[in-house]
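Much of what follows relies on a compact textual record of a protein's fold. A record is reproduced here so that you can trace the correspondence yourselves:
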Amino acid sequence: MASEKSFKKRKITDDVDGGGGGGLESLPGDIIADIFSRLPISSIARLMFVCRSWRSILTQHGRVSSSSSPTKPCLLLHCDSPIRNGLHFLDLSEEEKRIKTKKFTLRFESSMPEFDVVGSCNGLLCLSDSLYNDSLYLYNPFTTNSLELPECSNKYHDQELVFGFGFHEMTKDYKVLKIVYFRGSSSSNNGIYRGRGRIQYKQSEVQILTLSSKTTDQSLSWRSLGKAPYKFMKRSSEALVNGRLHFVTRPRRHVPDRKFVSFDLEDEEFKEIPKPDCGGLNRTNHRLVNLKGCLCAVVYGNYGKLDIWVMETYGVKESWGKEYSIGTYLPKGLKQNLDRPMWIWKNAENGKVVRVLCLLENGEILLEYKSRVLVAYDPKLGKFKDLLFHGLPNWFHTVVHVGTLSWVDTPLDLW
């Protein structure tokens, strides 16, 4: 009897490990890829720890990805709690009734308890230290791989930072962009002046860090690209489209016109992008987002109304068109906590009630209201639907994330 149990146990182990010709390794690669492409990324990440052979299959040759995609993404919920931040996630590729909020264990939280999310790209996050601005991490929340980036040799006091993070499909390089506005020591007034109640910096420097499969610890260092040609809004790059990061310039006293500016991750050059012919772009009531792989401008109106303009052909001004108009909506989750009129609601990041997150597979637009509620909007029917998930934090900033098993030295392409 004992020998029979031992035989059964050994047989099960052999099947899991691929022994005896009947395991996972015996299947053709395209079948393996098809099987795992139907699973949510959270399930695939757990399967990596079943045995060594499965981990090898899941990570080799970049041939396995998950059902997570730009239209069925993971939502990372950054909770900016006092003293210690948190990072939760929702996997929208799962069945809606099975979706639950889960919390990541952050390996770096002791060294960086409070952080900002610079950006999400090709399965990786770039995080910055929100307390001291002297630490940057790359992090894959599903494999728990993390990398602290080196400090830049050029440091400045009283600095203002603008970050960008992206992955170039052609070069297969990850790049972190840091734009530093700082006080200059050689000019009058120590290089700063006050305008409209805030300090404005006259000096600047653009720094960039490249990471790829060829990068070693010795070659991992920042490069200077010289002075920044524009003064950008103090927030991370807003959209990665066509291999380019996109920013919005800050208006100057005598030049109030705001510009859309791209940064090409391949040639590392800034270039102005034509804007749509719509009103309000010279004020702070707009943001740039990536919807369906296109550059989009979200133009905010009064009482939470907004229009979404889409650039169908990148770089062509005439291709801008208003594709969506979303009216005023008050989610049920906010009605019971309505402590101020809607017209003076403020979002901590952009001063608006609602943020446009992404376009879902069913054609609905995913929205975040006042960092409290997630809402799906159906543009065909003009209807709103509050999305209620178990364990959703009270306050959060949503980051759209396509989950993969990618890492810097083994980028896995999405299927």
Remarks:
- Confidence is low (pLDDT under 50) at residues 1-22, 186-197, 338-350, 411-415.
- The chain is about 10% helix and 35% strand.
